[in-house]
């Protein structure tokens, strides 16, 4: 019954055509949809992975509201290397990637800097009761399949529906780094979802499910899910800032050294008080520029 619910949810999501943060590495460089700016508007093409789309949406909404007559066109998401190549080829004005740009990825034409931290939240469908916290060992049990009923961790008598991510995704990499370990075998009954947006949709529609995704997304969209503490530590912005909650990914922006004035103005906005406030209010933690940035 649980698997049928998941299949139905996935079918509905497929029809919606949610974007993915992990297209094939052979995927074409992101291209802009048929969006036409008015004659007096300046258009800025912004691209990123699905794990950065929440930040892009926040910046787009707030920057366009400043009255600068700028239209931000959000491109189809792709892997980091595709976004970076798009900037090099000048078909992407500003990119957002969920990592720090590596020196070997820069041919000398790019500039980048870290702008935000986004905590990864472990959450359940509201149908799960009696579970507010999971230990590392309990999390390992759930992700390996040795714990498959919520009553084994103090919850109701119901089979756990595990919504997992592929091994090459940032969410799964961080789960392994801080809690699961690199050698833990994944449960054969896990429902593996390639898109973070897809997981977020499924966890809201599938009773007794559990998954890991963006805390900022949960905050900004007020998602009706149960947020779990891990080893007694809540996933909050305050705990991230205090260094108490470790499962956090870094979002960086990348742009061409010879970018347009409009792109430079958007970059300056991101580090301005209004831009910082927009990010912080949406659950992101602003990263203060360092000397290397």
Q: What is the fold's blueprint, element by element?
A:
Layout: H1 2-16, E1 42-48, H2 53-64, E2 70-74, H3 80-88, E3 94-97, E4 110-124, E5 133-134, H4 136-144, E6 161-164, H5 170-180, E7 191-192, H6 196-205, E8 209-214, H7 215-220, E9 226-227, E10 229-230, H8 237-241, E11 248-256, H9 261-270, H10 273-281, E12 285-286
CATH architecture of the largest domain: 3-Layer(aba) Sandwich
Could you tell me how far the N terminus lies from the C terminus, measured between alpha carbons in angstroms? 51 Å
Instruction: Examine the coordinates and then state which fold CATH places here, giving the name of the CATH topology of the largest domain.
Output: D-Maltodextrin-Binding Protein, domain 2
> Helical element count?
10
Largest sheet: 10 strands, mixed
Strand percentage: 15-25%
- What's the total number of strands? 12
Give an account of the 3D structure.
33% of the residues lie in helices and 20% in strands. With 293 residues, the protein is α/β, with parallel strands linked by helices. The chain has 2 domains: 2-12 and 119-241, 3-Layer(aba) Sandwich (D-Maltodextrin-Binding Protein, domain 2); 42-117 and 251-286, Periplasmic binding protein-like II (D-Maltodextrin-Binding Protein, domain 2), CATH 3.40.190.10. The strands form 2 sheets. Strands 1, 2, 3, 4, 6, 7, 8, 9, 11 and 12 form a 10-stranded mixed β-sheet that branches. A two-stranded parallel sheet has the order 5-10. The longest helix is centred in the N-terminal third of the chain and has 15 residues, at 2-16. It is elongated, with a radius of gyration of 20 Å. Mean pLDDT is 87; it is low at 5-27.
């Amino acid at each position: 019954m649980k698997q049928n619910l998941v299949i139905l949810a996935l079918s509905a999501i497929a029809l919606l055509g949610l974007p993915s943060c992990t297209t094939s590495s052979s995927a074409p460089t992101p291209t802009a949809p048929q969006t036409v700016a008015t004659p007096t508007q300046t258009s800025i093409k912004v691209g990123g992975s699905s794990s950065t789309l929440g930040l892009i949406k926040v910046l787009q909404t707030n920057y366009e509201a400043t009255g600068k007559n700028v239209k931000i066109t959000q491109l189809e998401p792709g892997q980091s290397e595709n976004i970076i190549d798009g900037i090099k080829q000048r078909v992407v004005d500003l990119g957002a990637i969920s990592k720090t740009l590596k020196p070997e990825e820069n041919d000398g034409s790019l500039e980048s800097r870290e702008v935000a931290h986004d905590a990864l939240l472990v959450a359940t469908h509201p149908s799960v009761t009696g579970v507010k916290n999971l230990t590392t060992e309990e999390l390992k049990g759930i992700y390996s399949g040795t714990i498959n009923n919520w009553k084994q961790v103090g919850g109701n008598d119901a089979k756990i529906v595990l919504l997992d991510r592929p091994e090459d995704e940032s969410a799964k990499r961080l789960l392994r780094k801080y809690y699961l370990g690199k050698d833990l075998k994944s449960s054969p009954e896990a429902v593996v979802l390639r898109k973070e947006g897809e997981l977020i949709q499924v966890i809201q529609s599938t009773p007794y499910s559990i998954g890991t995704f963006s805390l900022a997304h949960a905050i900004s969209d007020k998602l009706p899910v149960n947020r779990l503490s891990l080893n007694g530590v809540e996933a909050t912005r305050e705990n991230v800032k205090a260094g108490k909650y470790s499962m956090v990914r870094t979002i960086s922006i990348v742009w061409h050294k010879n970018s347009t004035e409009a792109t430079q103005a958007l970059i300056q906005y991101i580090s301005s008080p209004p831009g910082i406030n927009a990010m912080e209010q949406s659950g992101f933690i602003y990263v203060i520029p360092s000397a290397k940035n």
